[in-house]
């Protein structure tokens, strides 16, 4: 298989895993909203929770946008080294977009005072971490080899 074709298949595989992860996120969010409308359970009685939820939403949005911009810049690198992975939010976490989605969903759940949205946020976190992100990391380790494995040692989350 040519190098271009192998690189295309690897990129396609990563995007496929991410698409499934984001779809799962969206379905859990919809299910959580539906169940919260049907059962109308509340978590918070303290009015301070709503501003905290808004802060989560704002920070999550910034994190996702920052990660997407940094990810686009990564595509311009010809020869990848371990230090190339550590850029922007990727210096703090290997999965800033997933963390952003987690905090966005949690922030929405707090603002809406929605038990099921918050519960499904936790479910999403564990499923994403142990299924989707582990698949993505295997693909990236296969594609980039030792530079990516070095990066994984440097950035734990």
CATH class: Mainly Alpha
**SS elements, strand count:** 0
General shape: elongated
SSE-based structural type: mainly alpha
Helix content: over 70%
Mean pLDDT: 85
First and last CA, distance: 33 Å
The topology string of helices and strands comes to: HHHHHH
Strand content: under 5%
CATH topology: Four Helix Bundle (Hemerythrin (Met), subunit A)
How large is the radius of gyration? 18 Å
Report on the biggest sheet. Answer: none
Unreliable sequence segments: none
Summarize the structure.
With 157 residues, the protein is an all-alpha fold. Helix content is 78%, strand content 0%. The longest helix has 37 residues, at 3-39.
In words, what does this structure look like?
Helix content is 78%, strand content 0%. It is mostly helical and 157 residues long. The chain has one domain: Four Helix Bundle (Hemerythrin (Met), subunit A). The longest helix is centred in the N-terminal third of the chain and has 37 residues. The model has no long low-confidence stretch (mean pLDDT 85).
